[in-house]
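Reviewers of the previous submission asked for a worked example of the structure-prediction workflow described in the proposal, so we include one complete record here. The input consisted solely of the amino acid sequence. No template or homolog information was supplied to the procedure at any stage.
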Amino acid sequence: MLTFGSIGCGNMGGAILEGVAKLGTWRVIGFDPSPAALEGLRERCGLAPCADEIETARQADVVLIAVKPQHVRGVVEKIAAHLTGKLLVSLAAGVALERIKTYSAQACPAVVIMPNTPAMVGEGCCALCLDDPTLDATQKKLVLELFSAISTAVVLHESQIPEFSALIGSGPAFIFHLLESFVEAGLRLGFPYLDAKQLVEKLMLGSVRLAQENPDTPHARLRMNVCSPGGSSIAGTNELDRLAVRGAIIDAVLATHRRALEMAS
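From that input alone, the workflow returned the following structure tokens.
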């Protein structure tokens, strides 16, 4: 049985550990400065806590770096001498593959990934950058199979990561903004907050499920199926068009993309 180790067991690192553990074919280990985080994962997914970063790197076949970007260099340099024969995976936003390889002194192949926050409930999307020329076919297959099993995974070149980040990485923020707006509308209409929140969340889930169950039907057709001629729904969608909501959403994603490019440079 292979061992998957995470240095950093917070929200995202912990979610990936839990997803890997559910596969039943991996042993999961990890280190985090928070004993509570390690204890929670031990109870939920059988995590074997490690004393420090070096112990994690020594025991793991795949080492996930799940710390904040400003801590990546220190962590990777600390474990570099123990990475021979391993596979290094980093999810730190804005830390390029070249930098990961430099920090690790080229000790092993490296992969850069970008999951989004719904990964914390097993519904995430994850970009996989397999550009490292030292990755062999077996390692690429392992990474793809592993992350495809716990998320909707796509393989992208590193140059495409800013686009993924803008649309999918930041996307949950836009969806939650929409949810907030719908809940506030519910409050204006007289619904209690908890009722509005529950109904709006189900509205979002049900609408997405309907789209998924009809993959050949354009979203525009699904929208028009709700809008009777002369009815209230078409009046509401006309108001969205008058306010250029569609354009505002597109502009928000493009502004996010511009900022992602600035951060990457």
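The two ends are 40 Å apart (CA to CA). We consider this example representative of the routine output the project will generate in years two and three.
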